[in-house]
Design a protein that fits this description.
Blueprint: H1 20-28, E1 33-35, E2 41-45, H2 48-55, E3 60-61, H3 90-103, H4 106-128, E4 134-136, H5 137-142, H6 144-153, H7 161-172, H8 179-198, H9 204-210, H10 221-232, H11 234-264, H12 268-279, E5 286-290, E6 294-296, E7 299-301, E8 306-309, H13 311-314, H14 349-366, E9 371-372, E10 380-383, E11 386-389, E12 393-395
Parallel strand pairs: 2-8
Antiparallel strand pairs: 1-2, 3-5, 4-12, 5-8, 6-7, 9-12, 10-11
Helix pairs in contact: 4-6, 4-14, 6-11, 7-8, 8-10, 11-12, 11-14, 12-14
Length: 396
């Protein structure tokens, strides 16, 4: 164990700000090592130049099951699922990734936007129809919109959504429970998803996965189960996390940024992209293992070594983003690194951006007077998918 190394995750800052030590490490220690919860060590990449070079390099593997791969934590979690896409061999990964990317390409996501729009409006209707002056924006909107969107596109009934959240929370360790309880819930999750993908698919997204157009290749049932389970877990939790953090950022400081968004009619996709940069994930980093030596701007990663890609530090690097703490929709900036790169570029990135953009747009149209309903601190929980805003009391 490397007990003398700084522990990662780094001590979080208050609110949505990046951990304070990221800025110091960018200036003084951009290639330093840290100790993971498992006791293993990794090089922490904090500068944009290093993260951007690392994220698309074939020399860095996301496979957590490699013999030489350090462990993130001492307790198993979904990242160590042998059926998970990132843990597949190159040929199998390429097939699944290609079909998933095609199913969520620009044209398909454009066709899904009206579905997101209708779900968002229905959620606002539910929030406001009884005449209440306010409520919890996380429980009633930011958590529900990604969940209802993904399940609707996969043909899963709305009445099963609470089960999906409980199962996915066990799968990703986002919710507490004993290992035995989680194992039972994960098994139930797998059985449910298997029934979904083996039924005759009628929902648009599931049909595109089961019967991909323009290719003679078909995924096996096990591959479909793994991909669908990932979409229903991390694929729901990631946009929910970002949307909750985004709304807290917009409504903070007496909702000054929210009022500007409403008054100027800012393009919601431009706002979504800037908020992704500004509040993405929180105090987490992606773990990679070097399969060959890799030269990065700040140093050389030796074969077998682990690196951590600190997204929020890279996305707040003042060498790339002048005034990084400012919310500047439409700013000229490099391609967003948080979606990964190369063969691991996130196939659901367009759908996630669409959920965030439509979610922001419908709240602006329907509830332009949104304000926080508390002067106290907003609770934020550190989880595997990032720092999650767990409740957001608002008035409208």
């Amino acid at each position: 164990m490397d007990d003398d190394l700084p522990a990662f995750p780094l001590p979080p800052a208050s609110g949505l700000a990046p951990a304070a030590d990221f800025a110091r490490r960018r200036a003084e220690c951009p290639f330093g090592r840290v100790r993971l919860p498992s006791g293993d060590s990794a090089i922490l990449l904090v500068r944009h130049a290093d993260v951007a070079a690392a994220v698309s390099s074939p020399a860095l593997s996301r496979n957590h099951l490699l013999a030489q791969a350090p462990r993130r934590s001492g307790e198993p979690n979904f990242l160590y699922d042998p059926d998970l896409l990132i843990n597949q061999s190159a040929p199998a990964h390429a097939t699944v990734h290609r079909i998933a990317t095609q199913a969520m390409n620009h044209e398909r996501v454009a066709a899904h936007r009206p579905v997101i729009h209708r779900i968002a409006d229905a959620l606002v209707d539910t929030m406001t129809d009884d005449g209440r002056p306010g409520g919890d924006l996380v429980a009633e909107y930011t958590d529900r919109l990604p969940l209802l969107t993904i399940t609707r596109l996969l043909g899963i009934p709305a009445e099963d959504c609470d089960d999906i959240r409980r199962w996915s929370g066990a799968y990703t360790h986002s919710h507490p429970g004993t290992p035995q309880e989680r194992a039972r819930l994960v098994a139930d999750f797998g059985a449910y998803v298997r029934d979904v993908v083996t039924a005759a698919p009628r929902a648009a997204l599931l049909a595109d996965l089961v019967h991909p157009p323009d290719t003679g290749v078909r995924l096996s049932t096990d591959e479909l189960v793994s991909l669908t389970r990932l979409m229903l877990s991390a694929g729901v939790e990631a946009p929910a996390t970002v949307l909750g953090r985004a709304m807290l950022r917009l409504l903070a400081d007496d909702a000054a940024d929210w009022r500007t968004f409403v008054r100027r009619g800012t393009d919601p996709l431009a706002m979504a992209d800037e908020l992704l940069r500004l509040v993405y994930a929180g105090n987490v980093a992606a773990l990679r293992t070097a399969t060959t030596d890799l030269v990065l701007p700040s140093g050389t990663v030796s074969r077998g070594a682990a690196v951590l890609l600190a997204w929020i530090s890279a996305l707040h690097d003042p060498a790339v983003y002048p005034r990084p703490e400012a919310l500047l929709p439409g700013r000229r900036a490099p391609k967003f690194v948080g979606f990964g790169g190369g063969r691991h570029y996130c196939p659901g990135r367009r759908l996630g951006r669409a959920i965030l953009a439509v979610g922001l747009d419908r709240l602006r149209a329907r509830l332009p007077g949104l304000r926080l309903a508390t002067d106290g601190p907003i609770p934020i929980a550190e989880r595997e998918v990032g720092a999650v805003v767990t409740t957001l009391p608002v008035r409208w």
